[in-house]
Amino acid sequence: MRKSALRGVLAALAAVSVFASVTAEGGAASAEPTPPGAAVPVAISVSAASSGHVGAGFAGFSYEKDRVGAGMFDAGDTNLVHLFRLLGPSVLRIGGNLVDIVNWNGAGTGGSSGEIAPADVTKLAAFVRATGWKVLYGINLKTNTPANAAAEARFAAAALGGSLLGFEVGNEPNFYRTESAYETSYNSYVAAIRAQVPGAVFDGPGQGDSTSWVSAFGAHEKNNALTDLSTHLYIGKNTTATIDGMLASNTSGRLPDAEAAMGKAQSADGIAQWRMTEANSYYHGGAAGVSDVEAASLWSLEFLAGVAAHRGSGVNFHGGTSTQFPLAYSPIAFSGLMPTGVQGVYYGELLWSLAGAGALHAASVSGGSGVTAWAVGANVFVTNKGAEPITATVTLPASAAAASEYVLTAPSLTSTAITIAGSGVGASGAFTPTPRPVAVSGTKVVVSVLATSAALVVTR
Fold it and tell me: What is the β-pairing status of strands 273-279 and 312-319?
């Protein structure tokens, strides 16, 4: 459970090398092929070097803002509270397309998905207090005024108190504004909101599937209450969804390119941090059989590592329910407003969270196919996207006294029967893992990782 998470030192190595993916070269000509189903030997060496920091709240959620008025966030829904707590404390981003459609009605009675009223925000505040999470609170830009935005921000800041992490102005404004026009709007909203909430801070620009504004926006707004650069990212449209494409997306193409661009802008502009405030596999809700299965668990785990490698502060995986289209990729599955269980991405987030906060260390990998590795503090991740099980000899950066292994696995990449250390996660948040003890000899640990699975080796 979350209590098992060990907190260590976190650090990230160079972006391109934080996790290594190695394809077997076949070895010497005289080497005999590995029999089908036999474990392939793999050597992993974790670097002692580190840079950057990944803190608590790295693996979070993003939900459409109309879910606030709909009543999804209810402290009385103990199942949902427990499902959040299992990953937390973390960050809930409230926004999505619906943030620019539903609007604040300070005189509203609440309980309507068509608007946000004081009672709705009060209910949200009670929910996040029950979970221990913090909120990135989205404000309507497209159909709003600075004065109305400021009135909402004032109430939200008072209701959420210490649970408020910051505000977002609009959602993916590159689809309806130019960069300069968005900056003008951002400045007017910030001025109005800070007149009502003097300590308010913001993230931005929150483009959709683009980082083209981020450098200029950060340079211009870094002294105007901007504490986080942000962007939203998906692999592509759900009509193009494939498991092979999803699993390959973390090593080349738009995902690592965008992560590198965000890290570069954050460093150049001197902004405190950057965050992927909305992301998931394929936009328009993902695809059943791709975005909700074991393959998505492995994809989300490696996606988190890629963001950390480029000095990101975390990922808010989009989910919940939507009036726009079914969200097959949602980490938590729902029937109406009630949670019915968890899906692929949730398991990737959960395994990540079990490592706790600390330094992200790169690792070199030799042998195997589709094997990646990295460490969070003294705890080592190994993913095996290959078709054969592996036996990994891991060289730690420092000696350990003992270790245990949490294996994230399922019968196949397309399976929804996912477990971590022998336990699934129930709709109530019940999770009873039984990690396997593994022998340690100084800096050496030997672990087994099934095909199409991942493992977390927790050392102490």
Answer: parallel
pTM: 0.92
Give yes or no for a contact between 48 and 359, defined as CB atoms under 8 angstroms apart.
no
Closest CA to 355 of 46, 48, 13, 56: 56
- Cα–Cα distance for residue pair 386/23, rounded to 1 Å: 9
Q: Is 108 helix (H, G, I), strand (E, B) or coil?
A: coil
- Hey, what domains does the chain have and what are their CATH numbers? 2-51+359-459 (2.60.40.1180), 59-354 (3.20.20.80)
Residues of the chain by 3-state class (helix, strand, coil), percent to 5: 30, 30, 40
Q: Which helix (H) or strand (E) holds 440?
A: strand 440-441
Q: Round to whole Å and give the CA distance between 379 and 5.
A: 10
Q: Are strands 403-409 and 436-438 parallel, antiparallel or unpaired?
A: antiparallel
Question: Could you check whether the bond before residue 89 is cis, i.e. omega within 30 degrees of 0?
Answer: yes
Residue type, 128: V
Q: How far is CA 214 from CA 93, 231, 384, 436, in A?
A: 19, 8, 34, 44
Element of type H or E holding 154? helix 146-160
Q: Name beta bridge partners: 54.
A: 358
Distance between CA atoms of residues 323 and 455, nearest Å: 36
Q: Is 251 helix (H, G, I), strand (E, B) or coil?
A: coil
Q: Could you list the pLDDT tens digit for every one of the 460 residues in the chain?
A: 333 333 332 333 233 333 343 333 222 222 334 455 689 999 999 999 997 677 899 999 999 999 999 999 999 999 999 999 999 899 999 999 999 999 999 999 999 999 999 999 999 999 999 999 999 999 999 999 999 999 999 999 999 999 999 999 999 999 999 999 999 999 999 999 999 999 999 999 999 999 999 999 999 999 999 999 999 999 999 999 999 999 999 999 999 999 999 999 999 999 999 999 999 999 999 999 999 999 999 999 999 999 999 999 999 999 999 999 999 999 999 999 999 999 999 999 999 999 999 999 999 999 999 999 999 999 999 999 999 999 999 999 999 999 999 999 999 999 999 999 999 999 999 999 999 999 999 999 999 999 999 999 999 9
Query: 379: which DSSP letter?
Result: E
Beta bridge partners of 228: 203, 273
Evaluate whether 214 touches 189 at the Cβ level (below 8 Å): no
